Amino acid sequence: MELRRDIIEKLLEWRESPNRKPLIISGARQIGKTWLMKHFGKEYFKHTAYFNFDNSEELCLEFENTKDPDRLIGILGLYADCPIIPGETLIIFDEIQQSNRALNSLKYFCEDAPQYCVIAAGSLLGVALSQGESFPVGKVDFLQMYPVTFKEFLRVDDPKCHDYLDGLSAIETLPEIIMNRATESYRRYMTCGGMPGAAVAMLENRGIGAVEKEQSNILQAYTLDFAKHAPTREIPRITSIWNSIPSQLARENRKFVYKLVKPGARSREYEDALLWLQQAGLIYRVFCLSKPGLPLSAYDDVSSFKIYMCDTGLLRSLAALPPDIFWTSNPLYQEFQGALTENAILQALLPNFNPSPRYWTSNGTAEVDFIAQDGLDIIPMEVKSGTNTSGKSLSVYVKKYSPRLAIIYSRNNLRIADNVIHIPLFLADWTKRLIRIANGK
To answer: What pTM did the predictor assign?
Structure first.
């Protein structure tokens, strides 16, 4: 089964851009970067020349000997099983972080051979780029890839339901049949998450055992990456932070606390480990805002932040939470249900909002889960895992800052009242469209 990924539209925009540069796709390991590049080449080019720097030391050595694109194209033609023709062939450099010279060569493809379409990716490319060695500054385009969204999952799981939601043109009560069907699909999605292997296992109805095996394998691969690629002195700290994520999120305010990683731990000891996980695409760090202002980054309190996992399904697996929890009501699950739901909503927001969301607190008396910027608007967003949407935090924020719109995610039906959009959890991927509708656009 192949999942249609919406990111393809951005790749098409890149291909047609008159100012196209070599493209670097970044994102966590096993989110489907290799599949995406090959699929894009197959569907939109006559030929695809694929090169993997992780399994060919000989290929890496070729880039040590020359930087000239014309000469490199001639050499690459000897490795490829197809012709390399400008405009007709997609050149893929996979696991490019294994060769600094190959990474640096993107600069010369940009300057001297822009007629070639070149895409590069790597499982730990974010970490490699942060080291700054041979990086082609200003000579590449970037595209961030995220796990499979619920919108993409629903397109396969329940096409009619997807098409109905994708065609919304007004904020009004959804039919009960749509609420029920979308909620059921959302439970399935929360179980498998957005890692393609796990999502496909769920969509193909291979059973929960197959889904959990995919998730377990991914978590094991991540742990092996710590040992193989991280600086030796940081491995224990990275592992400790990683294993502490469920307990960090289980806390009521979810603020990252170093002592939950290790008693007596200090920020300066663990900052590099946190940064490594973030650059590897395995965690998202959400900073606290001192106040909502433009740009959001100018008001970050860098000492106060939360961390979430790159994928909600992996968070469930890492926490050893049984899948059937989504189909039962258990009071012991109440606190972590909120954490899992927040992680899922953030996962839906990140591909759609730039800069990434923050959160806000008011002297410890109120807290808004996410603050997102949409153009010149700053929108507070509250996440509720159930149907109870009462609480003073959003009211405190609204009273203090008078935003044009606010959002509450919950299990309730879609509606708008008093400039607050009430969005069902499963509609989070459509948030930007609902904002446009609310603003009359």
So the answer is: 0.94
